[in-house]
Amino acid sequence: MIDYDRILPLLADGSVEFIVVGGTAANIHGSARVTADLDVLYRRTRENLARLVAALGPLKPYLRGAPRGLPFRWDEETVQRGLNFTLTTEGGDIDLLGEMAGVGTWAEAIPRSFELAFRGVTVRVIELDALIAAKRAAGRPKDFEVLAELEVIREEKSEG
Known about the structure:
Oligomer: single chain
Distance between the termini: 33 Å
Number of helices: 7
């Protein structure tokens, strides 16, 4: 399970530019589905990659599902050469997305996000319509399962 109280302050205090997406964003919008990881869309500038690597370093990130002992270095070069990372850390699982289907990059998502206080930390969260577009574009069975719920939430918010 994700330890929000451990990971989010590291990201925020480290001035990492990121947007909460995925299951956590769905929960923030009102979804009742349980999520086991934190998905974030991160800005891919050299400066932000350095902040991201420094912020998560103390949690000893490692590739989720990779056999122990597989050479993996958590550093700026690794993040620069990759795009999306599914990691396990001492604070729980985190998915780092350099791009997100249906939404695009961090820069494209910024206008479709908003700030709020979540668990005592100010974070940016993807707007509901953008989250729905992302779930639709991802097209996985688990995304389709939550899609109906998110559409009902959107409908209820528009009526309210």
